[in-house]
Amino acid sequence: MNDERLLNRLTYVVAGLTAFVLACYLLIFVNPTIFFNPFKPSTPIALFTPAPSLTPKPTLPATWTPTPEVTFKPISTRAADTPVPSRTPSASRTPTKSPALPTKSPYKFSPAKPPVLTSDPYGAACGNWGGVGGQVLDVNGAPLQGVSVVGWGGPVSEQAKKVFVSGSDARINKFYNGEAGYELYIGAPGDFDFYVVVYENNRPVSPVVKVRMVNDCARDLALIDFQRNY
Prior knowledge:
- By secondary structure, this protein is an alpha+beta fold.
- 15% of the residues lie in helices and 21% in strands.
- The chain is built from two helices and eleven strands; from the N terminus they run αβββββαββββββ.
- It has helices at residues 2-30, 170-175, and strands at residues 109-111, 116-118, 131-137, 148-152, 162-165, 181-185, 192-200, 203-204, 209-213, 221-223, 226-228.
- Strands 1, 2, 3, 6, 10 and 11 form a six-stranded mixed β-sheet that branches. Strands 4, 5, 7, 8 and 9 form a five-stranded antiparallel β-sheet that branches.
- It is rod-shaped, with a radius of gyration of 66 Å.
């Protein structure tokens, strides 16, 4: 009985060893370089080294002429516009230049506005009164007294000039609506030129104003206001 058990155990051991050996052979067959293989194959020696392959160069044809570049100009396919007859421009007005900045007057005084012929402030009978009158103003337009206004012409000779100091007569101031009125009485109205100028220190300080007097009772007064420029 004991012998039979011993034989069974030996059978198992032999079978296990046989299976182990077969497994080792299988591993060696699959991987000959495994660590427990006593007969590892030697590393094969390369008999030759392959030369590096050359990259083939492109070959040109026997005669190679570069293709010339051609520049194409776009051609318009749109039909040319038919010009529309233009209207002949009418004559345009010449543009008026904007006035230049005022320059300083060479005269200390000048007329505030052009002379105006009107009737005398007294209501004198026709043919009895003719003359020149007005006011003298400062740079701000306020009455300026003490200015000499001189006039001559027609029946008044240049040697016998008429002189009036502005603001010197309250009655004249009242007639000319200011505190610096003046008046140059000529006499009977008539058709002649009369000249008026402002004087200071015995010399003219304004342009000589020429006014045409007329033989008209309704226009026997030449109204002229003088204003100081600076």
